[in-house]
Amino acid sequence: MEYHLQTQAVHAGREDFRELGVHAPPLDLSTTYPMRSLQSGRDSIDQLSAGGAQAESAIYARLHNQTVFRYECAFAQMEQAEAGIAFASGMAAIHAVLLSMRVRDLEDVVKRNHIVAVRPIYGCTDHLLSCGLLGFDVEWVTADQIGAAITAQTALVVVETPANPTLTLMDLANVMRQAGAVPVMVDNTFATPILQQPLTLGATFSVHSGTKYLGGHGDVLSGLVATNNMWAARVRQVRILTGGNLHPMAAYLLHRSLPTLPLRVLKAQENAILLAERIATHPAIAAVYFPGLGASDPTDIVGRQMKGPGSVIAFEMRGGFAAAAKTMDSTELFLAAVSLGSTDSLIEHPAGLTHRIVSQEGRNTSGITEGLLRIAVGIEFVEDLWQDLKQALDTAFAAVAE
User: Fold this and answer.
1) What is the pLDDT of residue 1?
2) Interstrand relation of 154-160 and 184-187 (parallel, antiparallel or unpaired)
3) Element containing residue 289 per DSSP (H, E)
């Protein structure tokens, strides 16, 4: 029987609980594992080092951990992917995908050194692509220029939708048409598998900062990659070699949070829809960027590609930096902090924080101004959130008017 995604979130990764006689996921904290025989150990190392998902013996925790693997399987189910691979952070996950382009046994890919990327994108991803650390030739384009930028040397197309921090939307079907046979990596952090599943639209990789909605409580750093079995083997090989493994306790917390993921995403989204409409009418606001507002979604991505607009809102303050700083410093319920996707609401200044590491040219191209604020809406009572945000906006408006 095929169950609704909300039911899958509760039961994914728990299919063998009756057989095990448990009601909560087992937590395996071992760093090394006994083997049945030397030959079994040799075979297991061969299988795991080649990127296999599991083997008779886990051998060593950097090669495999059952608690992590259990969550990876549950996550993959939510993304409708053949495989999930977990990492110690979102950047470790993205780094591994990029390095997987150079795994030696991919003869047709290893020679390719060109990446096509679309801004805006998460600030650290932008910097990793731009700084030259990995040796790729990165070409920044707009969404409609992807096809024209692709060459015989293109290894990967990198996009994020909704994009951080301006919530810019991208038509993934159009991205796939332009990319053709070139793999596409989609940062799906803002949407989560509840609202968008990029692999069903043709993407090769769907990546997440699991620190955000997947963890959902501000207490676990993690990254996830959903992909097919062939690419999963390459990504696992990178993880083994570079050691960006997710700790089993973090995997346990992620799995514990999974049953409430749909409830948290949908409640925060409900709050955000109401807040975005009210923010747009405030005199301190010059513009609001939110997929739930028609102006931010001219091609009807929401309802066609996404099941909802999500719960992150960006808005431009009249009065620029001074007004943005005053607003951010005046909130009480909205915590002045980076990140998003937790149960509580956060407010941050992208140009000064999450995207400060991005070049000025990159920020300009992305529409990240000194007057832009980003709020990540939580699951609090929405009227309390609005009263807090309104008094902060009122304070900023009065200060700028003086």
Assistant:
1) 79
2) parallel
3) strand 285-289
